[in-house]
Amino acid sequence: MELNLVTPVPEGATRQAGDEEIHNRLWRVTGPHDPEAKDLRFHCISYVWGLSVEKKGSYFNCQRDISDQTRPVLEAVIRAAEVIYRDLGGERIEAFWIDALCIPQLEGSPRLKTLESMGFIYNAAMSVIIALKPSVWKIVQQASATVSPEPLSLSDMQILEKDDWISRVWTYQELVNSRATYFTTPVFADNPDVQVVVEATQFFNCVGHSLSRYKRDNHISDSTAVAIFPNLNVLEDTLLDSTLSGYLERPALAILSNMSMRTFDANFPQNRLLACIGALTKEASWGPPSSGLGELAEKIMGICEAKGDYSFVFTADRRNEESGKTWRPSTASSAAGHGPTHLVPVINWYIHSEPFGETQRGTNDDNRFWLEDMVPLKLSESMLADAEVELDRFLWDFTDPNDPTIRSKGLFGKEDKKEDGNAAFGGILEADWFQRLL
Fold this sequence. Notes:
This protein has 16 helices and 14 strands. It is of the alpha/beta class and 438 residues long. Among the domains are: 243 residues, no CATH class; 53 residues, no CATH class.
């Protein structure tokens, strides 16, 4: 892998081709730097590219087309870093890693190995600065209030819901791998001299409080809130992963299921698997890079197996036909489509294990494979009455017949169609992957 950085040109140094002036200073793409250097300090920048591009050679003498968001985002983050130092107690850091400029730009092994090292790069940074759209400027300003901020209005929640950063696959690993995280935006037209920055925990608390108040005031269930604000709920779920990322491993199934709620460019399906690798490991990639989806899927399973994490078996992929490995997802090419084709999780909602951070363990024995702590299930013609009551209590609107004052909205709530939900669970029981586990 290569670690390149955008850094200020030393005073008095001669301007070189590709140097750019930002906020009255010259900046240059430098490197590769030694990633093991103890005195290396830099910020990572997280943002969404969008559809428009700047042409090759137009910015920092780039060797390929890059996002037209790279320029305003870098300008905003350089200013945000000064705010972090001046107002939020952070270090003064004047080195930045941004993908469009710092990933080796020519196709080849250095580029591929760097793409497989995203977890390492974002964890090595002193902080990750996330640049949202300019339309979110007022929301970030409100969340950055020194006193407890007011919950967001419905219109503000709708604006934030539409920000593409929340829903992209890359941004999951960028967030959960960070040591410290801040949100900012390019400057707002009405306040061109004000750079707003908010620390991530304060921003998440504002979003979580806003979602809770919205559900309470409108008397809706969790599932209805997810349907209205799917991206904000994914953002809230990712907070827990981010909070615990320094203490506990993230199970593969939790990562895959979170990724399934995010979007990726169908023209670059490898991005989903590369983002999974970044979330699974903070190790740099020094070996041969993976060239295809099958190799990337194999690398993910290898990382998991080395950790004793076998939760990747709970995927809808075809199984390996090799003797002794029929439990393992196949990495053979699948039919191309607009959705993911490798390591597709059987669930697409947020999960956690008990105890938190634990995962599905397994052992090999005489060419056989055993999943640990499994509950054998058998298909039955009907559900036990007590089990049906408990399931209804968890899933649907429930009132205790013995005490009408005890009531639970349930996961789905009474406003959803119960028969549709039951049909979905029936489909899981009949699925091929589930039958193989029985």
